[in-house]
Amino acid sequence: MISLLTVYRxxxxxxxxxxxxxxxxxxxxxxYGQGIYLYDKTGKKYIDGSSGAVTANIxxxxxxxxxxxxxxxxxxxxxxxxxxxxxPAEKLANKLKDWAxxxxxxxxxxxxxxxxxxTALKVAIxxxxxKGKPSKIKVLSRWMSYHGITLGSLSMSxxxxxRARFTPLLxxxxxxxxxxxxxCPFKQTHPQCGLMCADExxxxxxxxxxxxxxxxxxxPVIGASGGAIVPPPGYYxxxxxxxxxxxxxxxxxxxxxxxxRTGKRFAIDHWAVVPDIxxxxxxxxxxxxxxxxxxxxxxxLAPVRQGSKIIMSGHTYSANPQATAVGLAVLNYVEKYNLTxxxxxxGDKLMSRLKNLKRHYPIIGDVRGKGLLTxxxxxxxxxxxxxxxxxxxxxxxxxxxxxxxxxxxxxASAGIEGKAGDAVLIxxxxxxxxxxxxxxxxxxxxxxxxxxxxxxI
Length: 457
Ligand code: PLP
Description:
By secondary structure, the protein is α/β, with parallel strands linked by helices. The protein contains 14 helices and 14 strands. Pyridoxal-5'-phosphate (PLP) binds near residues 147, 219 and 223. Belongs to the class-III pyridoxal-phosphate-dependent aminotransferase family.
C-alpha cells in the first residue's frame, strides 16, 4: 500500500501466496509490538500513529491481555451459540450495557464492523416488521461515510471509491450531504447556516416517503472517509428530532469512534442524543481478537421480544468465548487506566501541537477531531481551500515519508472528486504519553516540511 521500503526480498514476494491489499506491493513484516510501537522483522521501529486504522486503542503487547487469552483458551475457546452461552460473553454484554448511553442495553455479538452495521440494518428492518410496518426497509446515510464492505453495509456507505465496482448490486442509501464545515456542501458558515446539513435529512425522508425509511445511520465523527470530521454543535440533536418526527431509527456507527477514542465513552456522547442502535468493533478488543457488536435499545428489542423472539442474523463465531474474554479484558484495561479521560487530555495536547503546525505550513488547511481521533487536511490554496489534484495526492506523499521515518498515519478520503478533501488520520493508541506525542509530531512535521518543499510551496 504505502510502504516504499523493500523489506521483503523479491524471491520471498514471489513465493508468498498471501493476498495483501495491493497485490504487487511490498509490506514490512510485523515482528512484535510494544505500547504505541510496532517493530518489523528488520528491527525497524514504527509509531503506530493511526492505531492500525484506529483499532489498537490500548497499544500492543500487553501481558494482562495475553494472560486473559491464555486462561480462556485453557478453559474453552468455542461453543456454538445456539447450544451454549458463556461467562465472558454474558459479562461483556453486561459491561456494554453500562458503557452505552440511555436504554441501549442489549448486545448482539458479531465478528467485524461491517457485520455490526449490517446487523443494525437488519434489526432496524425487523423492528418495523414486528411493529406491522413492513414497507420501512431503507436506511438513509450520508455521503463521505464508511460503514463496511459487505453488500448491506456498503449500500449504506457514501464512499464512492469502495462502491464503484458493485454499484449495480447496491441500494442507493447515501442521500444526505455530510456536516463538513471546512468544505460546506451548502457554501455556508456555521451558525448562520441554521444547520442546513441536518435539515437535509428531513427533505430526504419526505422525498423517499417516511413509510419507506427504517433508519438513518451516521458515524458521529467521520473517520476514514473524511479525516475526523466533527459536526457542528446542535447537529445530532436536530438529526434525532427529525428521526423521531418521522419514525426513523437512529443508528450510531461507533466502530471507529467507540470506547474512549474521542475522549468520551462513545463519540455520540459529545451531543445530547441517545441512539436507538450502536454498532461497535475495532476498539472493543483493541485488535487483540476479531469481535464487534450491535448494541440495541430496550425500545428496539421490545417488539422482537413480543413477536418473533429471534434476531434474524448471526454467525458461527458470534459471541465467541475466546473473543469476548479478550473484549472483557480490554475494556477492564481501559477502565483501570482511565483511558477515556486520558484520551481527552492527550488529545488536547496533540490537537494544539498539530494546530501549531498549521500556522507554519500553508499546505495544512485544517486540523480537527475529538480526543485522540484527529485529522489533518491538505490544501493547495489557503484562500479557497482548493485541494491538490488526485494525481498530486499530497496525503500519499506524506504517508510515505512518515512511514520511511517510522510513523504510521492513515489516508482519509471518500474518493468523491470535487467534494472530499485530501486528509490523513492521526489517532495513536490511547495510552500514548506526552513525550511520545512530541516524537510523533516531530516526524509528521519533518514529513510535511519535505513534501511542501518538494512541491515548491
Ligand atoms: N464502520 C466504520 C465507521 C469503520 O471505520 C469501519 C472500518 O474501517 C467499518 C464500519 C467496517 O469495519 P470492519 O473493517 O471491521 O468490517
